[in-house]
Amino acid sequence: MSDIAATPLAIAQARSTAARARLSDTMSQLQARLNPRMLAQDAATGLVEKGKSVAAEGMETARQNPAAVAGGAAALGLVLARRPLTRLLQRLLQSGDDATADTLTSLKPERRPTAEERTEQ
């Protein structure tokens, strides 16, 4: 009779041991996935892949719309060169040619009085 009783006990112990092994394996996998270094590495890899994808799409769009790219580049160039262009216009205004100076002066906005000038009036 002890052989019959031992069999279910042995089966239960074997199941318990297998369940512990599965649980231990699952915990090891979770610890590996939740390791901060692994999370950072996964995030960096994802960002690099997404960046490559976006760059490839941008290049394809640029190939399909060269006029829009040229217009955007020109606008960006004007924004970046606004100070030198302003200085050039100011020099033109201060230099000699009256016709050019009159035309450019009419485009120049009026100067607002300073706080001191307003109090003097």
Automatic annotation (TrEMBL):
<feature type="region of interest" description="Disordered">
    <location>
        <begin position="98"/>
        <end position="121"/>
    </location>
</feature>
<feature type="compositionally biased region" description="Basic and acidic residues">
    <location>
        <begin position="108"/>
        <end position="121"/>
    </location>
</feature>
<protein>
    <submittedName>
        <fullName>DUF3618 domain-containing protein</fullName>
    </submittedName>
</protein>
<dbReference type="Pfam" id="PF12277">
    <property type="entry name" value="DUF3618"/>
</dbReference>
<dbReference type="InterPro" id="IPR022062">
    <property type="entry name" value="DUF3618"/>
</dbReference>
